Amino acid sequence: MLRSIAALAVTALVLVACSAETGSTDEEDPNATSDDALTSSSKSVSLLYEGTCEFLHNCSSWSRKLPDNDVQWGCGGTTCSDDANWMAGPSRAYCNKKVKVCRNGTCTTAVIKDISDVHGWEASNGVMDDLGLSHTVNVDRCAGSGGGRVTVQTL
Q1: How confident is the model at residue 35 (pLDDT cuts 50, 70, 90)?
Q2: Does residue 12 form part of some domain?
């Protein structure tokens, strides 16, 4: 089971990097979440690790052309900090929204700065650390792993 989760997380990281290179958008996905589907109720989701700023910068052709540690976010902007609480949401409808993420009674808030290629939820080092979720990344291989079950609530 643990290997399956790690494999899924690595796949998600690779997909994030690859989709940034192809420029995919939610408009291409007929199942993308609309603004009408956003609610303030909590839902249990599988949270994946999105990677470090260095990983995102080096593994995305859209970000490589930017200054060091800057990342071309799916929701706009380029500033990236590994300590900040940012996430990728399942669709463009979540862009720039604040979310409350909880695990085992510990909660943190984050801003949605990116769009997940796997139409799920992915988090920064800051969010993962706040929730006590393990995470690893290998920038040279553009691979990583980490995550766990959490609840997410839009604020």
Answers
A1: very low
A2: yes
For the whole model, what pTM was predicted? 0.75
**Does residue 60 form part of some domain?**
yes
Domain around 11: 2-23+45-154
* Residue 146 located in a structural domain: yes
In this prediction, residue 142 has a pLDDT band, given cuts at 50, 70 and 90, of: very high
Query: Is residue 71 a part of any domain in this protein?
Result: yes
User: What's the total number of domains in the chain?
Assistant: 1
* pLDDT for 107 beyond 90: yes
SS3 sequence, the chain? CHHHHHHHHHHHHHHHHHHHHHCCCHHHCCCCCCHHHCCCCCEEEEEEECCCHHHHHHHCHHHHCCCCCCCCCCCCCCCCCCCCCEEEECCHHHCCCEEEEEECCEEEEEEEEEECCCCCEEECHHHHHHHCCCEEEECCCCEEEEEEEEEEEEC
- Tell me the C-alpha distance between 84 and 125, whole Å: 8
